[in-house]
Specification:
Layout lengths: L5 E4 L19 H11 L8 E4 L6 H4 L5 H11 L5 H5 L15 H19 L4 E4 L20 H11 L4 E5 L6 H6 L6 E8 L23 E6 L5 H19 L3 E5 L18 H11 L5 E4 L6 H15 L4 H7 L10 H6 L8 H22 L6
Parallel strand pairs: 1-2, 1-3, 3-8, 4-5, 4-7, 5-6, 7-8
Helix pairs in contact: 1-10, 5-6, 8-9, 8-13, 9-10
The structure holds zinc ion.
Length: 378
Amino acid sequence: MATKKAVFIHSSELEKFSYPADCPFNTDRAGQVRKVLNSMGLLSGPGRSEAAPVAAERVVLKKFHSARYLHALRAAAKGRWDIEALNMGIGTVDCPVFAGMYDYPALATGGTLTAADLILSGSAELAFNPSGGFHHAGPERASGFCYINDVALACIVLAEKGKRVLYLDVDVHHGDGVAYAFYDRSDVMTISLHESPKTLFPGTGSEDEMGTGAGEGYCVNVPLPVGTYDEAYLKAFNAVVPPLARAYKPDVFVFELGADALAGDPLAHLRLTNNVYVEIINHLLTYDKPILMTGGGGYNVDNTVRAWALAWTVLCGADSDRHASAAVGGVMLESTEWQGGLRDRALAVSEQQRRSVERAVKAVIEEVKTRIFPIHGL
Ligand SMILES: [Zn+2]
């Protein structure tokens, strides 16, 4: 197979920004991922390159966000904040007012849109913006550390060029902002796997939210129980995503890889290891279509950085030679320091955890199959 063109999106400009100290959202993660990958020599070589984001312009942001909201965001960044802004979610605990609250998301969004442009022009087949993935923001709403919805905007830009987009969201939180952006459309299918709304923010994303009108069946939610582990997660993924993706036949994938479903995340309650992400990315690669991958949540910074560094090595094929050997009895025959260091070790699953998770996952798979599959002739 020919080497694919893979672009890593980052610049030191992004590293100038940070959320207030008491906010769990860490903008340094992307820079740390870049540092790790650079030290491994994985940002250059066959097919691999880097690109710097350019801040998204207001006219582009208005493809999803209202002028009134963008104005309020910019004003708040300059210290002018009022009750109208608060009503749009600006200045809450999750979306605090801070100096970079417009410039940072505009630049991070610029990174995701740069990735979309590179894919549309054919300059890249695979792209990763670890500073992207702000899936909670609504047209007129800041929510869950998200001010500007870069992933919804990327889907809009790709769909405008006639691409069938499959948006896959594995962040532990429901990808509500993106799901609702395309709720009545069939040209962007959204699939979100997340912790059950019964136990986690934002409290949406149950199986019965499945789109409306032309979009009925093109919004797919896979809510998962507390304690979901690798095997159970992959069971749900394999039951739902491959059949739908094959039926839908996307031209491009937009993949939100929030890493907060990993065990040890302080804000959520799933128990995955990053080996799940390897499986998922390897599956997406089998379609031979462009993949625009972004970051997202991930509040255990070390685990998140390692997961995203690993995700890039798999996405750009740097993992492939060793991947085969890794499969032999789980032993890394040609293990190198970095690869041994990036993959999580398997986690033990208790009998009780297995019983309760298995039952709930089985139920959710059946529910999705019953509701969604017939619409796609499955
Ligand atoms: Zn999240």
